[in-house]
Specification:
By secondary structure, the chain is of the alpha+beta class. Strands 1, 2, 3, 4 and 5 form a 5-stranded antiparallel β-sheet that branches. The longest helix has 19 residues. The protein is elongated, with a radius of gyration of 14 Å.
Length: about 80
């Protein structure tokens, strides 16, 4: 089974996945990329009212094969 690397792009910059993970299917890889976004953005939202994060997935040859992103924007109303 192929190994994939889920690199995180956030307000803290780039966090490179050096270890990677093995997924039995592309669907499991997609699900994992989407699953981790809400967990990450919860921590990011503590500081700002607008946050954008992305997970960019590389295969074992370094090619980007998937990107998942999430943007949350809060607007106060008077």
């Amino acid at each position: 089974m192929p190994r994939y690397y889920l690199d995180l792009y956030s307000s803290d910059g780039l966090t490179v996945d050096e270890e990677g993970q093995v997924f039995e299917s592309r669907d499991r890889l997609r699900r994992e990329a989407v699953r981790i976004l809400p967990d990450i953005i919860r921590d990011e939202m503590l500081e700002d009212d607008r946050t954008a994060i992305a997970v960019k997935v590389r295969d074992d040859t370094g090619n980007h094969v998937l990107e998942a992103s999430l943007v949350i924007c809060l607007k106060w109303r008077a």
